Amino acid sequence: MKEYLNGENVSICIFFIGVYGLCARRNILKTIISMSLMQAAAILYFLSSSFESGSIPPIGQNLDQFKHVADPIPQALMITAVVIGVSVTAVCLTMFVSMFHKYGTTNWNKVKKKRGEID
Amino acid sequence: MTLLLYAFVIAPIFIGLLGYIFNRTFFKWLAMVMQLGFILITIALLRAPHMELMLLDIPPPFGMKLKLDEISKVFILLNNFLFFSLMLFSSKKKYMDRLFTFLFLSLQGLINGLFLSTDIFNVYILIEVATITVSILIMYKKDKQSMYDGMLYLTVNMIAMTFFLFGIGILYKTVGVLDFETIKDKIMLIDEPKYLNLSFAFLFTGVSLKAAVLPLFSWLPKAHGTASAPSIVSAVLSGIFVKIGIYLLLRIQFMYSSAIDVVPLISAIGYLTAIAGFIFAIAQTDIKLILAYHTISQVGLMLIGFGGNNINQMGGLYHVLSHGVFKSLFFIIAGVLIYRFETRKIGDMRGLWWLSKPLSVILLVAVFSITGAPFFSGGFSKYFIAYGRYNWTELFLLQLINLGTMTSFIKFILLIFKRPTHEVNFFKIRKTEFTALITLALTCVLLGTGGSFINVNLLNQDLVLSFSKQISKLPSYLLSYSFCFIIYFTLIKNNALLKKLRKVELSFNSINIAIVSFFIFTIAYLNMN
């Protein structure tokens, strides 16, 4: 059982918990939370998939003398992904706030209904 | 010379930024000169060999590069041409303030970067940034409707891109590189293609949503047909932005081609998308929504092309070009019409011929192009999408799609030739607007009439359709159109079922369920083969 409990499997579970939140919850805030959850799962997957126990961080010089040096690419990419994720969440929240001022509800279906009445 | 590739990405953003800081109209004109320069450079480079620019000292697969190859040339040309015409069209509009211009030009640079990049993670980042820019542009007027449209667009597209990111993660674990070409080489070495199924399904789901194929298109009409966004935003979205999905679909399919064969799946999705698109389009009465649903239908047609033989694929690529031009033309005409008639209902607009003859002619050019008339761009590309198909089902479905497209554009013909009921204050179009409209309309005709010349001499594609052959298609075109008129007036007009269909709209949760179902279906399909 223990061997299945690794970062990759956990991240796939977290990803689909996020997907469940998107499919089953109507609250817009919960949608944004679910999106962040999925984003975090992708980051966890990237980092844990290239993890090797005993490897040293790829920082500094003369790394050739070490046997196991961690792959620097996923780490570099994930810093970017974290920044992107944060900005996306920020933009979503900002839009949500201004949408809430216009529609006065946090429910997707109610917003959709009110939007339909305008047409 | 290769530094030009930098300029394609950086220059629009830089000029936009300068324009934002100094707030002078000079920069708007500078941007247009730059765009014109880009168009000429791309045309000059069309026949040249590949161009590459290393972004780091380390060569790929670990470094990054920009590359201009056969496919990206077509997309880059289309992108810069559309942005040039649309900037020209709206150069004197009120909404074209410094922030809007900055966002608009940044979008151009980002899209150029997307088509030039050969690194799948860079593509992800560029799409994310472009999506945020687009959603701000959709909400630009900040009214009630556009808030919902922009929010829906942003969230749904971000969810799709998270699928894409997860796919990149799994792919990186399998092959260890991120460069398109190296991934393709490494995939060839993998013995067991089943290892690739999961990553492919994730990437395919993300990209299919971007391309708006059958179950995943419900966000598109909201975003492209939104009431409050300026019509040039809709034109950019339908003209080039939705093509990003198709471009990536091509890239991904090419990358995995040695291990996974999804060409039949793409073809089948194409047929379904095209048919669903025109059925929804016929049901609509809102001019922008008709056009938005038609984008879906035409995307389906492109996928049908890519799912066929070699000539069909070239036809599909050419259809990307022609659809970009005529759909942008449609959207900006729709913007003018909505402004002048003060309504979005196409039934309430009438008598354009008596109000403005030049605009009527331009609108007719667009209608002829989209319905596939000979000598117009759509006719040329649709001929090659259908070329060499002898299977009865395929021929029947293609004919059905063609007739559906014709039928849904009858409303535009009626808009021109129905007598006006009341006086409308028409029609002084600004010179810049008119130049942009004429440029796009002439390009539609040029892409059709000079299609053979452009394909053979510029695009290096062996597509030749002789003059006599084009003329011989004319009677069948006219006959089909008369048949469509009969169908329209007997079956479609005032059809109660279509009125119900007009109101069909997926909720946010249903859209997500559609995404998950599409993902599961893709995995099941891959595992069956």
From TrEMBL, chain A:
InterPro entries: CPA3_antiporter_subunitC, NUOK/Mnh_C1-like. Gene3D superfamilies: 1.10.287.3510. It is a multi-pass membrane protein. The keyword Lipoprotein does not apply. Its main location: membrane. The chain crosses the membrane at residues 6-24, 76-100. Pfam families: Oxidored_q2 (PF00420). Keywords: Membrane, Transmembrane, Transmembrane helix. It is found in: Membrane. PANTHER family: ANTIPORTER SUBUNIT MNHC2-RELATED, MULTISUBUNIT SODIUM_HYDROGEN ANTIPORTER, MNHC SUBUNIT. Belongs to the CPA3 antiporters (TC 2.A.63) subunit C family. This is Cation:proton antiporter subunit C. It comes from Fusibacter bizertensis.
Automatic annotation (TrEMBL), chain B:
It is found in: Cell membrane; Membrane. The keyword Nucleotide-binding does not apply. The chain crosses the membrane at residues 6-22, 29-51, 71-89, 96-115, 121-140, 152-175, 195-220, 232-250, 262-283, 290-308, 320-339, 351-376, 396-414, 434-454, 474-492, 504-526. It is a multi-pass membrane protein. Residues 117-401 form the NADH:quinone oxidoreductase/Mrp antiporter transmembrane domain. InterPro entries: ComplexI-like_HydComp (IPR052175), NADH_UbQ_OxRdtase (IPR003918), ND/Mrp_TM (IPR001750). Keywords: Cell membrane, Membrane, Oxidoreductase, Transmembrane, Transmembrane helix. Its main location: membrane. Pfam families: Proton_antipo_M. This is Proton-conducting transporter membrane subunit. It comes from Fusibacter bizertensis. The lineage of its organism: Bacteria, Bacillati, Bacillota, Clostridia, Eubacteriales.
